């Protein structure tokens, strides 16, 4: 026989050789059938049985005195029951016996035409039986025999199954079976037939497992702009791949690393890269997945997660947004003693550094609110490392742009370095959004390639919102808005430490009726003089309205809010006021969030308010003084803005001349479309 023939699958049973697996529903179905049989048969196995018969046979039974009783059912038929001794002794009644030879009260059924005819025949048969019994008897005995009935028929009224509540009973049976099936599926297989949805699965971990069969395609090559963070993360991956390299010197593998940084900086992306590079099982879940409305579910899921992780060790556990369960304990006074989040956190602390061994299990977590996490969670031995994932610098933004520009069809005028300079303060997610928005804008304009102008418009769209040229603005309002924005541009141009102006517009965008773009200087610390000049520039719009029109409007709401917060921070947090002194009432732990009192007295509070007001008034007067000294240039700039609606740095320079305090290299970096939007809305 040919070898290939031997390898062919068997065609028996249609080519399907799968074994039939046992199903518990078969047992339930069998029990249901037995129950229904017992209900409908009225007796079940080994119960009474009936046999049809004729009147000739009944007449013979009566004359032989074998009849025990006769039941007339519904005046329709008669049930003839035979005496027990006759069943035992006479062979013609053998079929009424059970298999073991005992009677089971089986009977014969005689169906008559009318009840009157049956009664007449029965009476005649009884008389003949009596006459036979009187042979050889004395007259007195004959009289007694003739007066005694042989069998007295008993009338019986029986209802059918459906008439006797059978339909209601059937409904009850079906309802009971349905409830049994639902309870079984809920407690064992889940509401949709899967174990993940069952009642007992509430305490199971919801972590998604990535292993060799379900690998993540993201690697460290896809993560740009996070060189320091990648270096530490890659070292953790190396711990798992080559543990002897570190343990041979007596060192221990870190138990956990906490990724901390603003939203959109790439914390979750780093974790995905770890999953793609580690080549070990990777458990991923969110902190909110531990929390349920049922008490004890969170702690149970933590136990189940670490139990599964120990079985898969070496492996990595990643908990995204860990602040959902890692918030400092005992800070919320409105929760009860049995706080579910605290129970979950306690269990997590125990699993991370308890008596049990978690060798080979490394925990990664991400949050942008590290200040509210419990101190016990941050101590060494649990999260040994805190990896800071900050907003990208210019070179890092350039690398991030290169990653997100790969799938786009770019024009030759797109300058990645220029884009990186135009987006200070943008996170990786913001840059990805800029690239996507630029592609959408280019497609909306029916372009074949994405041009530089599309990227600049995308930055404006993301920062300021969509242009609303259809918004109806009266000429008087337009004039007020123009002088407001011209005031910002004029004051910022004349101040040394104010952010350089890039673009001014009075075209409504988003909620704002006008906006100004600046090029913020990338710095790590800010001096008192720098903050003061920023306040003066921010108040330039309100000062311009006051100087030109002699009245003010609601358009400076955003400016006043920004300045007030900045002034309070300078006085109460940064210690930049001589009267209050070098004191800081800033709470980095977040404990004051749950307290009703202030960390200073009422007298100090009054002093802070007084100094803040003095600081803002001084900045406001300085802004008005600058505008009064340059009133002719302010008017020229405002009228130019009303005509063109959009002005760039070159237009302001043409009116005011070169900026007196321009820093070296700032001119090359300034261009349209920069971030740092100031939105004087609510006009």
Strand content: 5-15%
Overall average pLDDT: 77
* Biggest sheet character: 6 strands, mixed
Rounded to the nearest angstrom, the distance between the terminal CA atoms is 93 Å
Radius of gyration: 47 Å
The best one-word shape is elongated
Q: Ranges with pLDDT <50 over ≥5 residues?
A: 1-17, 42-46, 189-199, 333-337, 663-683
Enumerate the strands of the largest sheet in spatial order, edge to edge or round the barrel. 6-8-9-10-7-11
- How many distinct helices? 26
Number of E-type strands: 14
Helix fraction bin: 40-55%
Backbone structural class? alpha/beta
Membrane topology: Multi-pass membrane protein
Active site: 485
Binding site for Zn(2+): 484, 488, 559
Subcellular location: Cell membrane; Membrane
What's the arrangement of secondary structure elements?
Blueprint: H1 3-6, H2 24-41, E1 50-52, H3 55-63, E2 67-73, E3 77-82, H4 84-89, E4 107-111, H5 115-133, H6 139-147, E5 154-156, H7 162-189, E6 208-210, H8 227-241, H9 244-247, E7 256-260, H10 267-278, E8 282-286, H11 297-312, E9 315-320, H12 323-326, H13 340-352, E10 361-367, H14 375-378, E11 385-388, H15 394-405, H16 416-421, H17 428-444, H18 452-464, H19 475-494, E12 501-505, E13 515-518, H20 528-538, H21 540-549, H22 557-573, H23 602-629, H24 631-644, E14 646-648, H25 649-656, H26 666-669
Parallel strand pairs: 1-4, 2-5, 7-10, 7-11, 8-9, 9-10
Antiparallel strand pairs: 2-3, 3-4, 6-8, 12-13, 12-14
Helix pairs in contact: 8-10, 11-13, 15-17, 17-18, 19-20, 19-21, 19-24, 20-22, 20-23, 21-23, 22-23
């Amino acid at each position: 026989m040919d070898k290939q023939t031997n390898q062919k699958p068997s065609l028996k049973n249609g080519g399907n050789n799968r074994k039939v697996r046992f199903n518990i529903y078969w047992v339930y179905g069998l029990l249901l059938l037995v129950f229904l049989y017992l209900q409908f048969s009225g007796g079940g196995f080994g119960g009474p049985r009936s046999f049809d018969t004729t009147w000739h046979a009944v007449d013979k039974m009566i004359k032989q005195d074998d009849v025990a009783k006769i039941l007339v059912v519904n005046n329709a038929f008669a049930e003839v029951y035979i005496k027990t001794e006759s069943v035992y002794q006479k062979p013609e009644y053998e079929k009424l016996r059970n298999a073991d030879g005992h009677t089971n009260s089986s009977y014969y059924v005689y169906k008559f035409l009318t009840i009157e005819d049956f009664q007449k025949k029965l009476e005649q048969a009884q008389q003949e039986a009596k006459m036979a019994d009187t042979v050889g008897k004395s007259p007195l005995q004959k009289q007694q025999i003739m007066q005694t009935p042989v069998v007295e028929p008993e009338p019986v009224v029986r209802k059918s199954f459906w008439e006797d509540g059978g339909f209601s009973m059937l409904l009850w049976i079906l309802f009971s079976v349905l409830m049994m099936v639902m309870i079984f599926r809920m407690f064992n297989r889940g509401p949709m037939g899967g174990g993940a949805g069952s009642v007992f699965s509430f305490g199971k971990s919801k972590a998604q497992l990535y292993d060799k069969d379900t690998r993540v395609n993201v690697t460290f090559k896809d993560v740009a702009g996070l060189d320091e963070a990648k270096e530490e993360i890659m070292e953790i991956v190396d711990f798992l791949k080559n543990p002897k390299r570190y343990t041979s010197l007596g060192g221990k593998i870190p138990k956990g690393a906490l990724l901390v940084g603003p939203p959109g900086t790439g914390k979750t992306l780093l974790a995905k890269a770890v999953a793609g590079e580690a080549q070990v099982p990777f458990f991923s879940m969110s902190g909110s997945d531990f929390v349920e409305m049922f008490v004890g579910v969170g702690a149970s899921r933590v136990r189940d997660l670490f139990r599964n992780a120990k079985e898969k060790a070496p492996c990595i556990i990643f908990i995204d947004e860990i602040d959902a369960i890692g918030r400092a304990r005992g800070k919320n006074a409105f929760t009860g003693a049995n706080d579910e989040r605290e129970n979950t956190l306690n269990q997590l602390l125990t699993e991370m550094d308890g008596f049990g061994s978690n060798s080979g299990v490394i925990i990664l977590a991400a949050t942008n609110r590290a200040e509210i996490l419990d101190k016990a969670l941050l101590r060494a031995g649990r999260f040994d490392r805190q990896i800071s994932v900050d907003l990208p610098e210019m070179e890092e933004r350039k690398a991030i742009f290169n990653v997100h520009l790969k799938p786009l069809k770019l024009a030759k005028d797109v300058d990645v370095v220029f884009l990186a300079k135009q987006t200070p303060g943008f996170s990786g997610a913001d840059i990805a959004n800029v690239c996507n928005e630029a592609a959408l804008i280019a497609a909306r304009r029916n372009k074949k390639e994405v041009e530089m102008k599309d990227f600049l418009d995308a930055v404006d769209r993301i920062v300021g919102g969509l242009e609303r040229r259809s918004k109806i603005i009266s000429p008087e309002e337009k004039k007020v808005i123009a002088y407001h924005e011209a005031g910002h541009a004029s004051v910022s141009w004349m101040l040394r430490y104010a952010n350089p102006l890039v673009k001014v517009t009075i075209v409504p965008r988003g909620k704002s009726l006008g906006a100004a773009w600046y090029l913020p200087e990338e710095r790590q610390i800010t001096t008192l003089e720098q903050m003061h000049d920023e306040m003066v520039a921010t108040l330039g719009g309100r000062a311009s309205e006051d100087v030109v029109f002699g009245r003010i409007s609601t358009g400076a709401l955003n400016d006043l809010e920004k300045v007030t917060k900045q002034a309070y921070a300078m006085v109460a947090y940064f210690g930049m006021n001589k009267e209050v002194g070098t004191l800081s009432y800033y709470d980095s732990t977040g404990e004051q969030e749950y307290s009703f009192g202030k960390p200073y007295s009422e007298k100090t509070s009054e002093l802070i308010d007084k100094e803040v007001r003095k600081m803002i008034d001084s900045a406001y007067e300085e802004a008005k003084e600058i505008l009064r000294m340059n009133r002719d240039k302010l008017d020229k700039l405002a009228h130019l803005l009303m005509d063109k609606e959009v002005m760039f740095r070159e237009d302001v320079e043409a009116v005011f001349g070169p900026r007196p305090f321009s820093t070296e290299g700032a001119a090359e970096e300034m261009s349209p479309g920069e971030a740092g939007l100031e939105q004087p809305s609510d006009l």
